[in-house]
Design a protein that fits this description.
The complex is a heterodimer.
Chain A: E1 4-7, E2 10-14, E3 20-25, E4 33-38, E5 45-50, E6 56-59, E7 62-67, E8 72-77, E9 86-92, E10 103-104, E11 108-113
Parallel strand pairs in A: 2-11
Antiparallel strand pairs in A: 1-3, 3-8, 4-5, 4-9, 6-7, 7-8, 9-10, 9-11
Chain B: E1 5-7, E2 10-13, E3 19-24, E4 31-38, E5 42-50, E6 53-57, E7 64-68, E8 74-78, E9 87-97, E10 100-105, E11 109-113
Parallel strand pairs in B: 2-11
Antiparallel strand pairs in B: 1-3, 3-8, 4-5, 4-9, 5-6, 7-8, 9-10, 9-11
The chains are: A mainly beta, B mainly beta.
Chain lengths: 114, 114
């Protein structure tokens, strides 16, 4: 049972474009939704995170939009750069559930062409 | 650099063998997580320890075991290895904060079973 569904699997945009990656979750007990960025040969690194009491969070060129009623959240990358080419993972956790373990989506491989 | 250290970085071993992966969490982090990353399954949570005690268990096979020592480092033991165990194994650590559980990943241990 996949608790966090992520799409698309891959995405190619031109420099300056705004890639959007979408995630949907099933477990309404999830209350923490981070996005991780992973470069080849490296571990995932936290990019930005949101809690369900806000509908949007922005950090630099990265924005999370959150729709609690639809159980969906998405990552927007403004003015994308070739250096943003990486695999992006959405995740979710229930921080009140006794464990902070993250449930990950399957990832989106983003390519930003110069 | 996330501050999470994993050794070895690469490991090649034969089927039926046993290996131990080692992880040193970030200074002060009490929680350690193990994740398995493969192409088809994505990032799968295996197990979490908190201050030496098992906190949560995920999709961890009975052939696998882990522990967290008093100095907070952790080891993941993989035995009776099969070809399908070839994957990237990540250790992560966290310090729960008011704003959420920021989980930091190491660079992983590449395991190849031949």
């Amino acid at each position: 049972q996949q608790q966090v569904k992520q799409s698309p699997q891959s995405l190619i945009v031109q420099k300056g474009g705004i890639p959007i990656i979408n995630c949907a979750y099933e477990n309404t007990a999830f209350d923490y939704f981070p996005w991780y960025q992973q470069f080849p040969g490296k571990g995932p690194a936290l990019l930005i995170a949101i809690r369900p009491d806000v509908s949007e969070k922005k950090e630099g060129r990265f924005t999370i939009s959150f729709n609690k009623s639809a159980k969906q959240f998405s990552l927007h990358i403004m003015d994308s750069q070739p250096g943003d080419s990486a695999t992006y993972f959405c995740a979710a956790s229930n921080t009140q559930g006794g464990s902070e373990k993250l449930v990950f989506g399957k990832g989106t491989k983003l390519t930003v062409n110069p | 650099d996330s501050g999470v250290t994993q050794t070895p970085k690469h490991l090649i071993t034969a089927t039926g063998q046993r290996v131990t992966l080692r992880c040193s969490p970030r200074s002060g982090d009490l929680s350690v997580y193990w994740y398995q990353q493969s192409l088809d399954q994505g990032l799968q949570f295996l197990i979490q320890y908190y201050n030496g005690e098992e906190r949560a268990k995920g999709n961890i096979l009975e052939r696998f075991s882990a522990q967290q020592f008093p100095d907070l480092h952790s080891e993941l033991n993989l035995s009776s290895l099969e070809l399908g165990d070839s994957a990237l194994y990540f250790c992560a650590s966290s310090a729960t904060t008011v704003s959420g559980n920021t989980i930091y990943f190491g660079e992983g241990s590449w395991l190849t079973v031949v």
